[in-house]
Structure formats: structure tokens, C-alpha cells
Amino acid sequence: MAEKLEDLNLPLTVVTRIVKEALPDGVAISKEARTGLAKAASVFVLYVTSAATNIVKNNKRKALTGQDVLEAMADIEFDRFVEPLKEALEQYKQVAFAKKQASGKKKDETEDVEMAEDE
Question: Where is coiled-coil annotated (predicted)?
């Protein structure tokens, strides 16, 4: 668990990067606004995590999954974000699978080279 309350906040640099990417060119954001957005985002993440944790407990499980987060978003009446989040989760899974496959191929190639050298 977090030792201090500040440990629960999202990093300001990450939030700033996300906000700057969302803003049109030529629009600046004050430090005060960035700090406020970072705190609001942190509270929101904790709120969704709490709702997802309740789903996990009600289903008598220990691991929180992406599906639990999607259900939590619907439960806390953020339904309009569920579909975009499903798409993002699916993209993440595809990228992770591709990386795993690529890593497995490299490992197999390395083993093949080692076996050939041993012969």
C-alpha cells in the first residue's frame, strides 16, 4: 500500500504529456490546471479501482481484470466510455500477444543456434 497520500497521485509529468497531446496547437495549460487535472485523474482512478475491487470481491475472486474495470465503469454510470475502453483493451492484448510471440521466436532462434554450435 501507499505510505503517503501523495503516493496515490498519478505522476504530474505523465498527466501533463496526456493533456498536451489532447490540446490543440497553441493552447497552453497553467501549472495549477495541470496539478488539478492530475489530482482529479488520481481520484477517478482510485474510484474506478474501488468499484472494480467490489466486483472482484462479490465474485469471490482475488485478481482484478480488465473486464472488471469495464463492468465497474458501467456500474458507476460511465457507460459511454465502456466501448472505447473495450477497444483499447483489445488493442493492448493484441500488442502484448505480438510481443510475446516475437520474444518466443527470438528465444527459439537462440536455442537453435546454441544447439547447432553444440553439434
Answer: none
Query: Of 7, 42, 12, 46, nearest to 29 (Cα)?
Result: 12
Is residue 69 within 8 Å of 48, Cβ to Cβ?
A: yes
Number of structural domains found in the chain: 2
Using an 8 Å Cβ cutoff, are 39 and 9 in contact? yes
* Phi and psi, residue 10, nearest 5°: -70, 150
Taking the complete model, does pTM exceed 0.85, yes or no? no
CA distance readout (Å), 52 to 37, 43, 57, 59, 70:
22, 14, 9, 11, 8
Q: Are residues 89 and 70 in the same domain?
A: no
Q: 1 lies in which domain range?
A: 1-77
